[in-house]
Every structure is written in C-alpha cells, then in structure tokens.
Specification:
A hairpin with a 2-residue loop joins β1 and β2. α1 packs antiparallel against α2. The protein is extended, with a radius of gyration of 21 Å. It has a two-stranded antiparallel ribbon with strand order 1-2. The protein has 3 domains: about 70 residues, Arc Repressor Mutant, subunit A (Orthogonal Bundle), CATH 1.10.10; about 40 residues; about 30 residues. By secondary structure, it is mainly α. It is built from 7 helices and 2 strands, in the order αααααββαα.
Length: about 140
C-alpha cells in the first residue's frame, strides 16, 4: 500500500510545530478551532503528534535544519544566548532557551521514552478494581517506575 501524504492542514501543523514547538497553537492556526480554550486543540495536538507520518515529517525538517546550520554559526549564537542579560542581571530563561534549542538542533537529547497503557475496566466492580490495581503495580515493577 503506498504511503499517504500529509494533508494541507497536517503540513501546516508540522511547519508551525517545528517553528514554535507549541502543538496547541499549531492546531489552532491550521485547523478550524472555534474555541481555543475548549481543550479540543490540546487533544488534537496530542493526537497529531502520535501519527507516524507527522512524526517523520517533523523529524525530517529538524534534521534538515540541523544539517544546514554550520557549527561556527551555532556556536556564535549559542554564546550570545549564554551571555544574555536583562537589566544588568543574567537572564537565565533566555540562556536556557538558547541551550535547549542548540541541543535539540544537534540531536544531543536522548529520544523520549514513554509507554501508554489504556485498560478499560468497570471500576464499579470491586474485584475488577483490585485486579486493575494489581496489574498496574506489576507493570510498574516490570518497567522499574
């Protein structure tokens, strides 16, 4: 089966997400969200960021950007950020953002690791609840959480 391409809205979402790293705002900008505070945009952002072809598109753009930034330029901008001051005092927020961005661009961070487990259980039944809690505890032990 041939791989389907991204829709226009998905392409816009990917572009804006790479620029801002804000899924909610990227959804609001590219989808017909009438009430930004309803929580719909948050849910859609999470859903979009679980779609393999969207994840691949985001990673491809990030890799392209990182590959095209000369290390000398990144080092120069990095040093500017590390020397950021506001009102004569070190601006730690700005410094953190510069470091974070540089590390992301160069792929220094380890990939995120997460496991999502969704178990549908009738929790009104005491035995089912006990079983669910027991299973949850076993999972935590196996995953060393």
């Amino acid at each position: 089966m041939p791989e389907r391409k991204l829709t226009r809205k998905q392409r816009g979402f990917v572009k804006d997400y790479v620029e801002t790293e804000n899924g909610k705002q990227s959804i609001i900008k590219n989808y017909n969200i009438t009430d930004p505070e309803s929580g719909v945009a948050d849910v859609m952002a999470v859903e979009n960021l679980r779609i393999p072809k969207i994840i691949d598109a985001i990673q491809a753009i990030r890799n392209s950007i990182a590959d095209n930034i000369p290390d000398e330029l990144l080092e120069k901008v990095h040093l500017e950020g590390l020397n950021a001051h506001t009102n004569g005092l070190p601006d730690m927020n700005t410094r953190h953002r510069y470091l974070d961005t540089a590390y992301k661009l160069k792929g220094i961070y380890a990939p995120d690791k997460s496991i999502v487990v969704d178990i549908a259980v009738d929790v009104t039944n005491e035995k089912a609840m006990a079983t669910a809690l027991e299973y949850e505890e076993k999972l935590k032990q196996q995953l060393s959480i």
